Amino acid sequence: MKDHSYLAVAEFLNEAEQEKREVIRITEDYPDLSVEESYKIQEELINMKVNSGHRIIGSKMGLTSHAKMKQMNVEEPLYGYIFDYMVVPSGGEIHMSELIHPKVEVEIAFILGEDLEGPEVTRTQVLSATKYVTPALEIIDSRYKDFKFTLPDVIADNASSSRVVIGNTLTSLNSLNIDLDLVGATLYINGEVKACGAGAAVLDHPANSVAVLANMLARKGEKLKAGDIILTGGITEAIMLSVGDTVSGQLDQLGDVSLTVKE
Ligand code: OOG
Ligand code: MG
User: Fold this and answer.
1) Does this entry carry the keyword Lyase (predicted)?
2) What is the secondary structure of 148-192 as a DSSP string?
3) Which value, to the nearest 10 degrees, does the dihedral of the CA atoms of residues 139, 219, 53, 48 take?
4) Whose Cα sits closest to atom 7 in ligand 1?
């Protein structure tokens, strides 16, 4: 792909999000698109959002659990960015009319108290730099037709990021009685259990996900900063949402997080 095409592809994906319309995969037109090139498209997309007045509040890892990798048929983790306009308060609403074909995931989010700079960040360093952990629901809304993509497609599309609900309870790690890999997570929709798992599903321990992120960001000279919110990735497969759904994510010792789907 030629350098000037990165911007054009980023514009195409940004418009798809704004117009709430699914589009064909970019690898249909660029079958040789590499992971490195797809992050360049993502960078253009992120700059475009920043230039239009949106603020980055954190980042996310995706495809960090086998359940997610299997569901999406992609075997490698990726990262993306979370913006202020994506945040919904716990107990709040998302609107189907603003989205394409949203799915929900239950995740463990980290809030950093110190910067983390790769390339050799370890799980132990992540844990000592972490101020709080909190339950989160991530609403992913791939801009691609039928929610189908390859790794470069989904990287360019800012890892399907769409909405994020952060729990109201912030827990410091030293007040937990169990390690985060043993934290059970259950996703309820309309009172029914739709998926469940444990923190260990995420790269053996959710803190590993933050370490991998810090180390990936180091490749382009970026670091994770104190105050950043980091979503570590869906513990279970993602579940399709419909108008009228009430969603609740419950995590051992971390508390609950919920949302309602409106028209
Ligand atoms: C890509 C984003 C995956 C996660 O938590 O694994 C993700 C997708 O499945 O659309 O956010
Ligand atoms: Mg996710």
Assistant:
1) yes
2) ---HHHHHHTGGGEEEEEE-S--B-GGG-SS-GGG-EEEEEETTE
3) -90
4) 62
Residues in the chain: 263
CB of 158 within 6 A of ligand 1: the answer is: no
pTM exceeds cut of 0.85 = yes
Q: Is 80 close to ligand 1, i.e. is its CB under 6 Å away?
A: no
User: Residue 81: which residues within 8 A CB-CB, separation 6 or more?
Assistant: 46, 56, 58, 59, 60, 158, 161
Going from the C-alpha of 204 to that of each of 31, 65, 175, the distances in angstroms are 33, 9, 21
Could you please state the CATH topology (level 3) that the domain comprising 3-262 is classified under. Answer: Fumarylacetoacetate hydrolase; domain 2 (3.90.850)
pLDDT tier at 70, thresholds 50, 70, 90? very high
Residue 2 C-alpha to ligand 2 middle, in angstroms?
Answer: 30
Is residue 78 lining ligand 1, measured as CB closer than 6 Å? Answer: no
Query: Is 159 touching ligand 1 by the criterion CB < 6 Å?
Result: yes
Tell me, in angstroms, the distance from the centre of ligand 1 to residue 42's CA.
15
Q: Say what percent of the chain tops pLDDT 70.
A: 100
